[in-house]
Amino acid sequence: MAVTGAVMVLFLVGHMLGNLKIFISRDSFNDYATALRTLLEPLAPYRTLLTIVEVVLAVSVVLHIWAAISLSRRAHAARPVKYAAKKSQAGGYATHIMRYGGVTIVLFLVWHLLDLTFGVVNPKGPVSTPADRMIAGFDPSRWWMTLIYLVAVVMVGLHLRHGIWSAFQTLGWANRNRYKALRTGAALVSAVLVIGFLAPPLAITFGVVK
Amino acid sequence: MNLTLKVWRQSGPSDSGRMVKYRVEEVSPDMSFLEMLDVLNERLILEGDDPIAFDHDCREGICGMCGMVINGVAHGEQVATTTCQLHMRHFEDGATITIEPWRAAPFPVVKDLVVDRSAFDRIIQAGGFVSVPAGSAPDAHSLPVRKEDADSAFDAATCIGCGACVAACPNGSASLFTAAKITHLSLLPQGQPERLSRAKAMVDQMDAEGFGGCTNTGECTAVCPKGIPLDTIAQMNSDYLKANAK
Ligand code: HEM
Ligand code: SF4
Ligand code: FES
């Protein structure tokens, strides 16, 4: 969970920074998308590095979900009889946000790939530039799409708020003197990601970026 | 005080069990929770009923026998308190109190509120010891221990093995208990030779017993009557990962 999660967090940071290029110009964003595909050329064929990243990400996503499912199955097996009354003493945040939020994020990820990567559910269709897809996707008339992204990205933020410090704990790098810093750091990174990811869609929907 | 209790009654391991309602009258606020149950049990015996079975021994918060889930919280809502040290003054007159046993597959119910916690003993047997010649106690300063290590080891050593951490954990994980025992020994010089093999053996035994996996929810430390800190689990994870890397 911790290792695959860390891979995805690193990806998200890069992805967010890349998305912000839309604020420079459509061309800048498209050039960046091309650069992702032509990096390492001519040393390696077109799309080598991107494909490697995609494979690593796909493996991480699958392993992360597999770990989540097996944890949840073990949890059910370990408590066959439920409590008649159960009162959480630690907020229950981790239990609910991580499981249900995680499922929401997966559903969003599928939609998102169909939308902006493959373009099949995007108004511009598959044969278009990434910037065109992005700007058409979040067109003011499609405010509900922006709303879906907003909910999904906030879910990702809440997921990471627990996930990031939890990864340090799982890897054995946490201790009582570090908890405060780790929790603050996790919340900070999550907040930055949420803001950074939401800025482009909101700017497009509100007509700041055209 | 007058109270209504909803208590889990189960005549034996194979009975499916049910919640049963009881009225308890004239409870003194100075009674402990267990004394309140004693009062009810005396009445049940006089009436020819089967008294409610619950575990207890020291009644002073040090043996770890008296676990039960009170109103959905292991050992009740009073922080850092075992059931035997919980007093009735923390409840309102006329209140309804739900009482259930620890719920975990590795802690099967023996009768009513009594569960079998032998799984903890087997985790200890797997590695919760130091194999050193045990003569008389050594001189206090013959083996230097850093103050911080001594303090952390002592904090971990206060675990009384009550099982509240398992009962409270949404995953039914025994990580806090196992981590307390591992940390206690792995911070002290006497525990070093077997440090990694101990962590591996105890964690593997914990998993084999059928406890769930830790997702760092923090429910355990919130109910632990001894306030065992969550960083013992980080310490356990660190030792376990190192043991597996070897
Ligand atoms: C509102 C925020 C987001 C926007 C505007 C956005 C935009 C994009 C765009 C334009 C692409 C296609 C890039 C290309 O074809 O070169 C893409 C790909 C992708 N996005 Fe997002 N994204 C957002 C949030 C997220 C989140 C939260 C996740 C993770 C859960 C995510 C995961 C992915 C993945 C896995 C890919 C495919 C990467 C690849 O092709 O290698 N995105 N995104
Ligand atoms: S860690 Fe705390 S709650 Fe768990 S067994 Fe030890 S004393 Fe009880
Ligand atoms: S009876 Fe010993 S700790 Fe409660």
TrEMBL record, chain B:
Keyword annotations: Iron, Iron-sulfur, Metal-binding
Domain annotation 4Fe-4S ferredoxin-type: ranges: 150-179
Keyword Iron-sulfur in record: yes
Biological processes annotated in GO: aerobic respiration; respiratory electron transport chain
Origin: domain of life: Bacteria
PANTHER family: SUCCINATE DEHYDROGENASE (PTHR11921:SF41), SUCCINATE DEHYDROGENASE IRON-SULFUR PROTEIN (PTHR11921)
Name the record gives this protein: Succinate dehydrogenase
Organism of derivation: Nonomuraea glycinis
Protein's gene: sdhB
